[in-house]
Amino acid sequence: MEIGSIFEIDPATVKRGSQTAALHLPQVDKYGKNQCCFTASGREAIELALISMERERPDTRKCCLLPAYMCDSVFLPFLHRGWELVFYSVDRELESAGEEIFRLALAHDPGLIFIHPYYGTDTCAGLRRQMSALRRSGVLVMEDVTQSYYLEEAGKDVDFVVGSLRKWYAVPDGGFVASDFPLAEDVLETGEEYARERLVPLVQKWEYLREKERRTGGALTAGWLPRKSEYLKRNRSLENALDCYQGVRRISRISEEILSKVDEEDARRQRAENCHALYQRIRGMKRLWAVLPEKEAQAPLYLPVYARERDSLQRFLAGHGIYAPILWLVGEENRDFLEGDATYIFEHMLALPIDQRYHAGDMEQIAEVLALYEKQPVIGIRADANETVATGHIMRCITIAEQIKKMGGQVLFITADGQAEDLLARAGMEHVCLQTRWDHMEEEMPVLREILKLAGIKTLLVDSYQATPAYFEELRPFVKLVCMDDCFAHVFPVDALINYNAYHIRFPYRETYGGRTRLLLGTDYVPLREEFSVTQIGNAPSGKKEFSVLLSSGGGDAQNAILGVLQRAMQTEELKSFVFHVVVGVYHPQGDAIEAFAGNYENVKVYRPCSDMAGLMADCDIAVSAAGTMLFELCAMRVPTVFFQSADNQRYDREFFGAGERMLFAGDITQDRDACIDRICEGLKRLAADGTLRERMRENLSRVTDGRGAERIAGEIMGL
Fold first, then answer.
1. Alpha-carbon span 136 to 144, nearest angstrom
2. Residues 6+ away with beta carbon under 8 Å from 614
3. Cα angle: 108, vertex 114, 118; to 5 degrees
4. Strands 63-67, 3-4: parallel, antiparallel or unpaired by DSSP?
5. With contact defined as beta carbons under 8 Å apart, do 82 and 333 qualify?
6. pLDDT tens-digit profile of 483-531?
7. Predicted TM-score (pTM) above 0.90
């Protein structure tokens, strides 16, 4: 059974456009306000409250204090009406300090303070004394009860109470504002058209779920699956339209009719029971924990939890048919405004569904999935990146780690020193530093074993040329072992071995390891990032005038190939007008010199680093690259390429990539740099001049990899 996501509506229960008596809801009446108006959404309720306030108190200073943890849709009516917004902090218990509110009020002289009790708990209890003092000085207070609609303490001693009803009940639209101020109902527009449109995906979901129940074991045929994506897409579009709408609509007659039949007490009771049942089951879990004390929660909108790896938990739940939202998502453009506990809240909180659609059995289903997630293994990854070790090692491990986390596993990176810290932090990976020498790995054994024990690591993936058979032998009693092996220099005592290169067939892996080791061999296991899992054809966009070349040499580039190719190209008549897109690794020894050179040429663009490699590849006609994993990325993107060897372990790549018109091989740059650069430039000229050759290459490259190797590796590691 699916749990969560948007409400579904049985079409047989809807009387479209029927006239009803004036709507009254006990949970709204409890606020004890003289005036109440039902709107199409909570956002529009806020807008109506602001309009009414500005009419009744035209001298009110249009400055509002709001909590830092808030949905951005709340900001829209304030911004629309020209209000200045000042944010006060919220701690990890979702409480705010009254002293800070008072200080900000003195500094900014606000006309309004906005408060929000979170998740059925009076997290504003500590503020209410300050609110009373500020109200006596003329400051107005608005309370949003969208997460705490049933909370008894909510709505007391404030000027406006606002909330969204469509978050609580199966209605296509609905919000409300209650106040002792006269409400500007004359501005209300009809909401019937929007409600009818949004009713469609809610009914479609009901039909989808009923059909799913009718099929054996809940299995759906391929022909039925698009219906789900259809109603979700339609609902998202309507939600976006709601945010863009700047008027105020009256609640629709459809929603009034549905709400008039709602048993609010029964809904409150069921939410409270679900909340209690789930609280009991998550108690003591290590990877997630409740945000608020159970005894204080009164039938909240959701049960909020903090998770060590929130996105991993959300994906794991979704994979088991449980859809837990993030309240609220923060776009990259707004992250700079977060600080302190607000950052933690936005990055770690997840909302578990407990609404009245569900009962004890459904909460048990959620609890069982959470328990399964809790038991998922901790995978350790031992890898390094520095001026000597190219970033490709740790980048491919990050790709595998992302797939492990998507499957619900936990990942801890272990490095010798701190040079890879920024890379891992940007990828959202937990990591620990051994403070040892990266090129003397056997010396790290005492501290490594201690970390394995403390972290509960049961499986360790090692990606380093410095690891020896003795290194693995010493670790073998403590963990399952997986190693990356590019060149068959040793026979390792490991449980699984990965060589995703096509040239693995040169070596007698199967004969040597004799079934004792799980062998993940060949291009089915190329660990490409998810952005490369769907092929984008690297054709030049229609009408593009310039010819584009991607230029990369991997993380190290000890031979300074990039600068050499650029210098030669700018002196070559056939190449100097091309646009060169140059990707420079974080640890590139000549990065500054390359950027200085590029500053003299408008057609040389440097990316240091590149945030969207797949997109950049898709925009380029051809590429130059050192051998290595990037060649597989270029295969996935179908980009005709000239490649060269820059390390001994790449010597076999020429046999596969250079054969069958896949790519052009320019030689070993470590043996004769000038000759190799000459061949690179000759290869560029050849590819640029021969469109038929480029097309044949694209077709050949498309057969190399499907981009799902990291997923396969992660599955094998999780299964050890």
1. 21
2. 529, 531, 532, 536, 633, 636, 637
3. 135
4. unpaired
5. no
6. 999 889 999 999 999 999 988 999 999 999 988 999 999 999 999 988 8
7. no
